Amino acid sequence: MTSATVKNRTLKNHITHSKGSKTVCVTTCLNFFKIPFDAYHYTSSDRNVHTYVNVLRRFGWSVRSRKTEFKVIIGGITMTQLRRNMKKSEYTSDDYFIVSGYTSSKGHLMVLNGNGDTVIDTAGKHRWRIHRVSIVEKR
User: Fold this and answer.
1) 15-16 and 61-65: which strand pairing?
2) Residue 41: which of 51, 31, 29 has the closest Cα?
């Protein structure tokens, strides 16, 4: 785990509600963007697994997809391919991207900087397929 992950981690286990959940990885990513743990009820719901985007927008962040720019295809790409594509781009270490990955049975959220370096990752040793990449900027 990176030092930023350890600093921003507030949950040790997922919190499950009747219509959604608050997960460790998403809560840690939102804490990195200075959104307090008790300011929202869900990070994913039964109807929308990407509820975290709405939480970011509610707290003054702009979340815009960069799937086309980083060549994220329908079946997903590997983290290595994403990092290679990020290094070729004009983004710097001051730009932050929220990255959604999955395996056959789990979903995960991470924060990377513009150089492709990991900033927040609560499950560092997994091999994720990336299916969503968004830049997060202050409005």
Assistant:
1) unpaired
2) 51
pLDDT in tens, 51-64: 899 999 999 999 99
Which pair of structure tokens corresponds to residue 79? 């983290």
Q: Tokens 């999955």 sit at which residue?
A: 102
Within 8 A by CB and 6+ apart from 20, the residues are: 41, 42, 43, 44, 45, 46, 51
Q: Which residue has the tokens 């990513």?
A: 29
Token pair listed for 24? 């460790």
Asked whether residue 3 carries a pLDDT value surpassing 80, the answer given is: no
Task: Give 26's contacts (C-beta < 8 A, 6+ positions apart).
Answer: 43, 44, 52, 109
CB of 43 within 8 A of CB of 52?
A: yes
